Amino acid sequence: xxxxxxxxxxxxxxxxxxxxxxxxxxxxxxxxxxxxxxxxxxxxxxxxxxxxxxxxxxxxxxxxxxxxxxxxxxxxxxxxxxxxxxxxxxxxxxxxxxxxxxxxxxxxxxxxxxxxxxxxxxxxxxxxxxxxxxxxxxxxxxxxxxxxxxxxxxxxxxxxxxxxxxxxxxxxxxxxxxxxxxxxxxxxxxxxxxxxxxxxxxxxxxxxxxxxxxxxxxxxxxxxxxxxxxxxxxxxxxxxxxxxxxxxxxxxxxxxxxxxxxxxxxxxxxxxxxxxxxxxxxxxxxxxxxxxxxxxxxxxxxxxxxxxxxxxxxxxxxxxxxxxxxxxxxxxxxxxxxxxxxxxxxxxxxxxxxxxxxxxxxxxxxxxxxxxxxxxxxxxxxxxxxxxxxxxxxxxxxxxxxxxxxxxxxxxxxxxxxxxxxxxxxxxxxxxxxxxxxxxxxxxxxxxxxxxxxxxxxxxxxxxxxxxxxxxxxxxxxxxxxxxxxxxxxxxxxxxxxxxxxxxxxxxxxxxxxxxxxxxxxxxxxxxxxxxxxxxxxxxxxxxxxxxxxxxxxxxxxxxxxxxxxxxxxxxxxxxxxxxxxxxxxxxxxxxxxxxxxxxxxxxxxxxxxxxxxxxxxxxxxxxxxxxxxxxxxxxxxxxxxxxxxxxxxxxxxxxxxxxxxxxxxxxxxxxxxxxxxxxxxxxxxxxxxxxxxxxxxxxxx
Length: 702
Prior knowledge:
The chain is α+β, with helices and mostly antiparallel strands. A hairpin with a 2-residue loop joins β13 and β14.
């Protein structure tokens, strides 16, 4: 009996202790939840929520003709919070009624899984009460706009659980067009205008509460911002998409044709210094050409296009005249233990300075430079400084590499420095610097700073306009300028570019260049030539200046500047002349004289009488009440005669304007084919011939 009592006592005691522990645990849980709940919930949130920087929308880069060259577009990561109360109200009827149709629409939109699969994963996520179910990443703006109208999602975030994580990505709508100059916007590095104007384009970042979920994904806690992001400003570049496309396509065709390594082409507006096009194409490992590097602002040995600078210095310092004679030595000349060769040996001996330049003779320019500057090298260097060839052009583009011009006293300087510099060796300048010098000659000696951005706008409102900047009012005297122009034009009519421009509809001034360049550390044995052409057009009223530089493959069969770079220049010039220049040429004023112009018109009598009366031209009316009439005579004596119209007979249309001819012929049931502008000069059906309705009449206007 005592044993039973002892056992019961121990059981009761254990039971009481268990109850006490349970009550203590329950009490502690209630205390934590009710008294300390807010504190611990805030601690929990602090582990998952934080203030995050919200990237501002970057400004857009526009071309001068208003097209987007680089812009930001939104991209969305989409999640669903299946915990929202609305989805579970009334036993989840709202979710169940819409899940199948939502799955159907999503399957058709994204095409990444079937409607059945979508419905299945949604139902499972709903049952699991998932807080951040990943729906779709990298969703485009168009896809997002469509998705917002789908069943369930159209009810909004708080009824559907749809969570949207938005970010911006950079897009270049024109692909590789001026890609290197426009630039890239990457976290690791930026280039081009994207880098140069980064502080303008990037705007101000905002701040927002976000929650971290699985996979490191951040989703906003709510739609409110702590600091609202401020969109970046837009910049208006000087690039013209049409001109850029012309330059890039012309360059690409020649690179492909000659299997060249790389090349660049730059077009500048002569009067302002605006860069209208800047194409840079290099061959990738797959053999295709791509805007891989900005060759336009990278120095190399320019070759014969530098002879313009040499001749400018010689003429400005009065060392030579264009009529001086120089012996070309048959194209081979030894000096200081080295040999100067002419690229195209033609055996010439005694020629004028002008002819030596037009023939692009290395021997001629080297001998002239030695005779002028052998004892006064600093005089030559100072002239190059005056031409700004020893410094950056100042273009608004980060990454321009400075030139290399050796000077007396430098360890590389020697007896061969002056003669080799004279024809573009032993120095490094960029194609853009060459262009800037040639543009100064085209622009009456005034050197303009090249630039790529003409304005900055904020929400469509102009806040800053960037105007042309003159670097040097005159790089030489007017006398020297005139002589240089005649030499550059002579290259295209009598010299190395004669064949290239012999059928040109407009005058061109320019210079060919062919330079043998080193293959990195391998020296010159691979016979790699750099072809170039720099010039401006029309020569009598320059509108555009252009430079083309192409690095050919080793041992290229065709490598002369006139044969490789020249055709690219010509194609660009021809297109621009026919599209822009020809139409803008202002006709020369004609001396006033008494007007005795012969008048010969046909058309509506009523309209012609009105014009004659308005011009106070006296006329004799012999047309009586005719609807159609002809006017013949001059401003002193005009007579109107009737034109009889028979619907079965072809009328005389000669002298009519197109409006009257169309009106008359269509009323007669005739169909017209028209060529030209102005008055009718000829008609395919002779006047007086019988006609039938529906007959086609071809009209040629004058």
